[in-house]
Amino acid sequence: ILNVEQSPQSLHVQEGDSTNFTCSFPSSNFYALHWYRWETAKSPEALFVMTLNGDEKKKGRISATLNTKEGYSYLYIKGSQPEDSATYLCAFNTGGFKTIFGAGTRLFVKA
Amino acid sequence: NAGVMQNPRHLVRRRGQEARLRCSPMKGHSHVYWYRQLPEEGLKFMVYLQKENIIDESGMPKERFSAEFPKEGPSILRIQQVVRGDSAAYFCASSQTDNEQFFGPGTRLTVL
Predict the structure, then answer these.
(1) First vs last Cα of chain B: how many Å apart?
(2) In angstroms, rounded to a whole number, what is the distance separating the alpha carbons of residues B56 and B34?
(3) Number of Cβ pairs closer than 8 Å across A and B?
(4) Per the CB 3.0–4.6 Å rule, which of A46, B42, B46, B103 could disulfide with B59?
């Protein structure tokens, strides 16, 4: 059974803090790892698609790294802002179209 | 270019009724996915369809649930004889390739 684990489950930080969270996935049959940002009452929005071991992607203050050999990805947010408050989902794909989602890390940024 | 559209956004059904959820993919997308989010849980894959074909329905309950994506028109997720445990948010996503999926706003189903 393919399982994607995300930690922590939730995180409370102050505005300006930098933070990071983890996504663990099976290291075999890897094809792609996706990160999504999901605000309350909206739909998940794609942040990154990562396919190569050692990949690093960046979008503004958010960046992500990928280690396919050991099966983990980190998402970093530098200088968190209240508008970063959301659930961050990672999703694992083995090359078919089926994508397995983690339960998400819920980030709360206090002003 | 409209995004993925789902309707209705909210649906209330009594136990035993049928629920029909519709999803119109983004223009040019031929792959559709349905996910379910139960309260306090993440997204669970249900089914993946291409036009007129079900490719993978391994996440869909064997009974009462069915999905289709006809040649013309939206994809439909149908739940027959709904029970309280079917109450959830149902999200549809579409893609053109096997990489990025674009999500709709979801349909929140409440079974009374």
Answers:
(1) 37
(2) 11
(3) 54
(4) B46
CB contact under 8 A, A95 and B99: no
Confidence of residue B83 (pLDDT cuts 50, 70, 90): very high
**Per-residue pLDDT at A30:** 87
Question: Angle at CA B49, nearest 5°, toward B45 and B52?
Answer: 160
- Is B44 an 8 Å CB contact of chain A? yes
To the nearest whole Å, the CA of A92 is away from the closest chain B CA by: 11
> Which of A32, A43, A102 is nearest residue B91 as measured by Cβ atoms?
A43
Spatial distance between the Cα atoms of A104 and B11, rounded to a whole number of angstroms: 25
Most A CBs within 10 Å, among B90, B98, B102, B108, to test the A interface: B98
Both tokens of residue B62?
């064997």
- pLDDT tens-place string over residues A29-67: 888 999 999 998 788 999 999 999 999 999 999 999 999
| Size of chain B, expressed as the number of residues it contains | 112
Taking Cα atoms as reference points, which of B90, B97, B80 lies closest to residue B22?
A: B90
